[in-house]
Amino acid sequence: MISFSAFVKRFFSDPVAIGAGVVLLVLVLMAVLAPLIAPQNPYDPLQLDIMDSEMPPSWKPGGDDRFLLGTDAQGRGVLSTIMYGTGISLLIGVGAVIVQAVLGITLGLIAGYKGGWIDSFLMRLADIQLSLSTLMMAIIALALFQAAFDANTYADYAIIMLIMVIGIAEWPKFARTVRSSVLGEKKKEYVDAARVIGLPARRIMWGHILPNTLTPVLVISTIQVAEAIMIEASLSFLGLGMPTDRPSLGSLIRSGFEFIFSGSWWITLYPALVLIALVLSLNLLGDWLRDVLNPKLRRGED
Amino acid sequence: MAMLEVQDLHVAFPRGKRDEVEALRGVNLQLEKGERLGVVGESGAGKSMLAFAILNLIAAPGRVSQGRVMFHGQDLLKLSDRKIRGIRGNRISMIFQDPMVTLNPVLTIGTQMIETLKAHRRISDRDARKLCIERLKQVAIPSAESRMDAYPHELSGGLRQRVVIAIALLTDPELIIADEPTTALDVTIQAEIMSLILKLCRENDVALILITHDLGVVAEVTERIMIMYAGLCVEEGPTKQIITAPRHPYTSGLLKALPQNAGRGQRLYQIPGSMPPITALPRGCAYHPRCEFADNGCRTRIPPLQGGVACFNPLKGASS
């Protein structure tokens, strides 16, 4: 293991990590503080004026000082929608990863510790789940959901649905990682010692083995947040994700896409840049975390 | 009735689809309350297997194929999972070889001790902590209070083994099984730890099964010795008698191999050959390929344990 101070030291000696961390921090702050700092509340129809629609960024001819990055077809400021949309994207990403982690860690822990037919059964289940593409599963589930409920109900529950669908579709990644670590930890003597003490299997699994497998879980969690955000963006782009009146980054890109040929490129471009920055910073941080926490890649000084 | 009585214990591991090989081939053992027994043998003789079998903790695919482990008249091998858990770590505890790996690296000493206690006693956190600190003091750990919040990697090997011993003593067990408790430690620490175990066993009237390959250690601590070879007990008796007048050629070989029994400047004695793996045991007495007294009877039949020795041509002991 690496101590916390060494961890911090490694972070501040790596320019890529600092860069990714700063970008992520700015985006998260922007999303969390959106209701306070956004120039406009894009969810409030009273603040929108259809006369403001499709304005270019403020420095362009025809731009308006109120809308730094221009407006979309409904007169919402692109900057404000990005601020709120980033929050929704992050919420879905983190929520989906929590669902994945809960499912995956539980099943991976049981599979690895119990072994035998339970292990075979759970891992074949994981294989089947992985052979169905996440996107395909999500499209089917969400299309059914959209067809089954009216638009208002759908709008209310879309976030929960997206979190559940992406969470359930991606559990095998956690399960496999946890299982393989458990197989390694299970043979160590502290597990024998815990059994000799007379602890029940449940306590040994959750209290003794799980804390020793959290390093890889931490790494894939970071990368899976990025993955979940991408999946959500793809679904929204296909019209199956967040509704356009509560847009995520993906639905913003989609709503602007219709206007790109009429010259209103800013509606699509800016949300897309933010999405790229968000996913890239998460992935870079995940890679960095993996390198730091992997003792085989460790440099001499720690 | 003896406190612990192991009767004809066999442990088998599968080989291929149908076949099985036996790691223990019928071991008998008796232990009275407060008695200290040494189990001695080379690596692979089945010593640790015996310890795990007593607690019914043989890991799959291995299994106890035959025999009984009677503890106060109860067969531990037949108890339900729940009941045997109430005995493990409570009435019988175990000390492992390497304290570097037997403590969970991510949990503090205190967490691991309190958890052990709470698994077997209804006790408040505060009382548990008090008792743990008391035990840590008993095993002579300096500044016990602050060690409770330390992680295993912050302690030295000797201190860690003391913590392991403290955990083993936590629930006032009747029997401690110590599986090579000093092998992984520094030579200077070994004697300290051994005398600590001896002292605590005497003070608390705890029975001890000391598993080791070092006859020198056993001689100082135990009252009786059992010598194991290839999954069988080959000689058994009071420590003094076995050390001074061994009857099995293997025991005598082990004693001759001790450095303190060799003359100054002499080459150390070495038993020729090595112990056969359990998958390729010779016919008859497993020791005969290395034995200088082996005859045709030794090559065909397994000698039974009679009068404390399993040999057709035993050496003349002191008594006989």
From TrEMBL, chain A:
Major subcellular site: membrane
Record-annotated membrane-spanning stretches: 12-38, 88-113, 125-148, 154-171, 209-231, 265-289
Domain ABC transmembrane type-1: 86-286
This protein's record includes keyword Phosphoprotein: no
GO cellular component: plasma membrane
UniProt entry keywords in alphabetical sequence: Cell membrane, Membrane, Transmembrane, Transmembrane helix, Transport
Cellular compartment(s): Cell membrane
One GO BP: transmembrane transport
Domain of life where this protein originates: Bacteria
InterPro entries with a match to the protein in the record: BP-dependent_transpt_permease, MetI-like, MetI-like_sf, OppC_N
SUPFAM superfamilies named in the record: MetI-like
Mode of membrane association: Multi-pass membrane protein
Family: Belongs to the binding-protein-dependent transport system permease family.
PANTHER family: ABC TRANSPORTER PERMEASE PROTEIN, OLIGOPEPTIDE TRANSPORT SYSTEM PERMEASE PROTEIN APPC
UniProt protein name: Peptide/nickel transport system permease protein
Organism of provenance: Rhodovulum bhavnagarense
Automatic annotation (TrEMBL), chain B:
Annotated InterPro entries: AAA+_ATPase, ABC_Ni/Peptide_Import, ABC_transporter-like_ATP-bd, Oligopep_ABC_C, P-loop_NTPase
SMART domains: AAA (SM00382)
Keywords noted in UniProt: ATP-binding, Cell membrane, Membrane, Nucleotide-binding, Transport
Residues that span the membrane, as ranges: none
Domain ABC transporter, residue spans: 4-255
Membrane-related topology note: Peripheral membrane protein
Subcellular localization: Cell inner membrane
Main location: membrane
Name of the protein: Peptide/nickel transport system ATP-binding protein
